[in-house]
Amino acid sequence: MTRRAAITGYPVAHSRSPLIHGYWLKRHGLDGTYERIAVEPETAKAFYRGFAGSGLIGCNVTVPHKEVAAACCDTLDDAAQAMGAANTLWLGDGGRLIGANTDGLGFLGNLDQHAPGWAGRCDTALVLGAGGAARAIVWALASRGVEKVLVANRTLSKAEDLANRFASVATAVSWDYLADILGRSDLVVNTTSLGMDGQPPLDLDLSPLPVDALVTDIVYAPLITPLLQAARDRGNPTVDGLGMLLHQAVPGFERWFGVRPEVDDALRDLILADLGVSS
Ligand code: ATR
């Protein structure tokens, strides 16, 4: 029987997930589909609660439903529990709904692929932003044993809320003291929307940053954001954000279709072409 999975959220028209999973389904010759299902906010709770009757074997969840999906699950993995948000669901025994959050794993998979050994060189990480993506990344850094995660955000109270969630490693810091903080950072991660096409650039003077510190961005359109370009220009190693999108999809595909897929150059090129971005 054809296995059906889907991206669910509202809206879903612009999601690249069908392209990613479609590529892997074709590459592995599997009898499966990956659809787009727009779930209107008023119906989200009923949709995830009734998931066992949907005809799907699992799904991804995107904004704005990651929290409600987690609340509707019977079981959550450690990451989804820590974040209070799920992006990957599947049916377990007896139709039980199981939820995972793979955004943090996507972040780690991207750095592992493009900056191998990075964690061994990272005592202090600076995370810029305090939204859902930052939450996943702070979880990821903590899970890898990074000792100190500094969270800076335009709205300090949101950085404080996030840091409190991961209090064993995370501390909120004021955006006004970034120059000082950059000087002792081994890794800088932009999780804000600044630098994205149509948004202003992240205006950050990198001069205090050690030249061997790794700089990464979750924005992938453009692929090389002004932040990454500025880091490259002064000789810092950089990793672009596209790999996080691709790697976060791996655990769901493996769970639904039984094959662990590769994030290869052909997949990267396919998504870049769809984004209209050159590599
Ligand atoms: P996501 O869930 O994708 O992380 P989000 O929750 O909307 O998205 O978070 C966006 C992040 O970008 C927030 O940290 C936001 O800062 P605020 O909490 O102060 O809103 C940050 N951000 C967005 N626009 C910004 C800007 N112009 N300057 C500084 N930070 C900005």
Entry keywords:
279 residues, alpha/beta, Rossmann fold, six-stranded mixed sheet, six-stranded parallel sheet, 12 strands, 37% helix, 19% strand, binds 2'-monophosphoadenosine-5'-diphosphate
Write the H/E string, N to C: EHEHEHEHEEHEHEHEHEEHEHHH
The Rg value, from CA coordinates, equals 19 Å
Which consecutive residue ranges, at least 5 long each, have pLDDT under 50?
none
CATH topology of the largest domain: Rossmann fold
Short overview:
This protein is an alpha/beta fold and 279 residues long. The protein has helices at residues 17-27, 44-49, 66-72, 78-83, 103-114, 132-143, 156-165, 178-182, 226-233, 242-247, 250-257, 265-275, and strands at 3-9, 32-38, 58-61, 75-76, 88-91, 97-100, 124-128, 148-152, 170-173, 187-190, 214-217, 238-239.
